[in-house]
Amino acid sequence: MAGFENKWIWITGASSGLGRAMALVFSKENANLILSSRNVDKLEDVRNECTGTGRKEILTLDLQSESEFPEKVDQALSFGGAIDILINNGGISQRAQAVNTQPEVARKLFEVNFFGTIELTRQVLPSMIDRNRGHIVVISSVVGKFGSPLRSTYSASKHALHGYFDSLRFEVQDNGIDVSIICPGFIQTEVSRNALTANGNPQGKMDNKTSKGLTPEEFGSKVLNAIRKRKKEAYIGKYEVLGVHVKRFLPNLFHKIISRSEVT
Q1: Which own/partner pairs from 248-256 qualify as long-range (CB within 8 Å, at least 24 positions apart)?
Q2: Strand partners, 181
Q3: Where are the beta strands (DSSP E) in the chain?
Q4: In whole angstroms, what is the distance from residue 185 CA to residue 142 CA?
């Protein structure tokens, strides 16, 4: 299995949650890290937590500011001359009924979760194609495989990622480039606190099921293994990941289970 020592790994959404967890585990592998998000102070905190012998560079990035992407990609490439693995982790969740979700909120969810992600990937790809190797990793969600109440637009944005990156995988496989889609379930992060409500304000509280999910450390260990194996798709969580298979093979049962569940 491939190692990560001296590999250049660019992680978006690296200032907290899953991004922070991945930065910590890859630093232990002596990878060179490029840590991106909008919050430079939190990125500094994550960099200080990282261990290992690899370099740790900070590159601020707003996934809604696509006009800045060419400059940001050039900066990322200038650190070590290559991006071996791009981990598209930046994103935002939702907690609102579809009927109440304002159009600008729905658009923001897609701008961050989908359009920003695919455009950053598109601009990184030429450097990977030139080297005839690379690895694109996308952090989706189990609700990228099935819908759930209060997450209509969020789920739709994650479904869109699957369609795009499943297609991209076929297009770049002859260029030595792998594409992995990672689908987390409930992980103990601030994702539910930061989730957008119908008017765009953060929910401001942690969901009960999120608080009982995997720890970020457990997620980090599992995602590192999935990326090392270059898995095309991986589901990381507890019982909730079974929903992917129940929805596929027993859709009526899946509907009954979700209908009877307390969803927050």
Answers
A1: 254/146
A2: 138, 233
A3: 8-12, 32-36, 56-58, 85-88, 134-139, 177-184, 233-236
A4: 6
251 within a domain of the structure (yes/no): no
**Which residue is catalytic, options 154, 164, 235, 239?**
154
1 pLDDT higher than 60? no
In a domain, 248, yes or no: no
Cβ count within 10 A of residue 261: 13
Domain at 210, CATH number: 3.40.50.720
Q: In 112-243, which ranges are E strands?
A: 134-139, 177-184, 233-236
For the stretch 101-142, pLDDT in tens is 999 999 999 999 999 999 999 999 999 999 999 999 999 999
Lookup: tokens for 99 = 């009927």
Residue 228: Cβ within 10 Å count: 13
Residue 261 lies in a domain: no
Instruction: Please give the Cα distance from 204 to 257 (Å, whole number).
Output: 27
Q: Beta partners for 135?
A: 85, 178
- Banded model confidence at residue 207, pLDDT cuts 50, 70, 90: confident
pTM for this entry = 0.97
Q: Which two tokens stand for residue 176?
A: 């030595």
Q: How many domains does the chain have?
A: 1
What does the alpha-carbon distance between residue 74 and residue 258 come to, in Å, rounded to a whole number?
45
164 catalytic per annotation: no
For residue 140, give the 3-state DSSP assignment: coil
Q: Locate 82 and state its tokens.
A: 């290559």
255: in domain: no
What number is the average pLDDT over the span 215-222? 97
Residue 47 has pLDDT above 90, yes or no: yes
Domain residues for the domain of 189 are 8-239
Q: What's the token pair of residue 154?
A: 């969020």
Burial of 170 (0-12, 13-18, 19+ CB in 10 A): exposed
